[in-house]
Design goal:
The radius of gyration is 24 Å and the shape is globular. It folds into three domains: 2-176, Ferritin, core subunit, four-helix bundle (Ferritin, Up-down Bundle), CATH 1.20.1260; 185-260, Fe-S cluster assembly (FSCA) (GMP Synthetase, Chain A, domain 3, 2-Layer Sandwich); 264-333, no CATH class. The chain has eleven helices and eight strands. By secondary structure, it is α+β, with helices and mostly antiparallel strands. It comes from Darwinula stevensoni. This is Phenylacetate-CoA oxygenase subunit PaaJ. Residues 292-334 form the PaaD zinc beta ribbon domain.
């Protein structure tokens, strides 16, 4: 069961995949007095297993829709393949379940498109959600020992073989949503030279990835401010990382419009900043608050009793503050 709250948190939807038929079949096979209720209600907590993707916090509505979309697409291709199982009972269950699974995929994919192709705020939330949850989806295609045995006997589909079809479903929807396809984990190794704890994805400076007619890979990046001296180093590091992965024909293009804002940073990136000792952005780009009135918590002791020392800190994208409680100076990422 996946609980999904809508954006204004007025309604709660409970989306259930029809597992009753599978529980009934499992009880018949195992015997020993087991019933369909044994598995959902009477198992020990440690006997439940979920993929990490489904264990993640719901977050905002875009986060929840991204999780649902990734899993729904997997379920759709899994049940489609399961119809060819050598176990006729499982094949029949798959045939029956596919209609409901198809509906779930349509529901979540439509929300991805609606948010991605909506307002600037919804687009950025959806882009961040896709990027942050992408790395957890790979686990869906790694079979356990039991699954591997069932695959070998033709009972279950080879889930590793479903990945290409799944990725195409994801890519088609992301293109319709006018957001960028997630970068691979390798590109997440490219850090900001000035704040090495942050990757370029944490910063949100990667705007798009394109495959050109000549089959070159073009990566579009936006500086945190015009003239940022780190951009040349970032571009070089991106190329080096891609070369290390065997991708030689790489173009890194700097895009100045629309201008970068701290709204593009991921929540994970903001958390990393605070843990690193740099206060993360406190307001939205469309909310003007003078630097004198802005309340910036100390990343060290969490006190809100802080004072701005200088509008510019160690770099142009930071301000210098001092905590009046722990007396430590710290940078604030503007």
């Amino acid at each position: 069961t996946i609980l999904v709250k809508n954006y204004d948190k007025r309604d709660v939807f409970v989306i259930k995949f029809d597992a009753r038929s599978l529980y009934e079949y499992a009880a018949e096979i195992e015997g020993n007095g087991k019933t369909e209720d044994t598995y959902p209600y009477f198992r020990d907590v440690r006997q439940f297993r979920n993929s990490l993707l489904l264990e993640l916090p719901n977050g905002n509505f875009a986060d929840t829709m991204a999780k649902c979309f990734f899993f729904d697409a997997y379920q759709f291709h899994f049940y489609t393949a399961l119809k060819n199982s050598t176990d006729t009972r499982l094949a029949a269950i798959a045939e029956k379940s596919l209609k409901e699974v198809t509906y779930h995929l349509r529901f979540s994919s439509e929300w991805v498109v609606r948010l991605g192709d909506g307002t600037d705020e919804s687009k950025q939330k959806m882009q961040n959600a896709i990027a942050e949850h992408w790395e957890y989806a790979g686990e869906l295609f790694s079979p356990s020992d039991i699954e591997a045995e069932m695959i070998e006997k033709g009972i279950a589909p080879n889930i590793a073989d479903l990945k290409d079809a799944w990725q195409k479903t994801i890519a088609d929807t992301i293109e319709e949503a006018t957001i960028s396809f997630p970068l691979s984990n390798e590109k997440k190794n490219v850090s900001d030279p000035e704040v090495p704890v942050l990757s370029i994805l944490d910063l949100g400076i990667v705007r798009d990835v394109k495959i050109n007619a000549d089959e070159s890979i073009e990566i579009l990046i936006t500086p945190t401010y015009s003239g940022c001296p780190a951009m040349q180093m970032i571009a070089m590091n991106v190329k080096m990382e891609m070369f290390a992965q065997g991708i030689k024909n790489v173009i890194v293009t700097e895009v100045l419009s629309p201008a970068w804002t701290t709204d593009w940073m991921t929540e994970n990136g903001k958390r990393k900043l605070n843990e690193y000792g740099i206060a993360s952005p406190q307001n939205k780009s469309n909310e003007y608050i003078s630097i004198e009135d802005l309340i910036v918590p100390c990343p060290i002791c969490k006190s809100k009793n802080t004072t701005v020392i200088s509008e510019f800190g160690s770099t142009a994208c930071k301000s210098l503050y001092r905590c009046n409680d722990c007396l430590e100076p710290f940078d604030y990422f503007k």
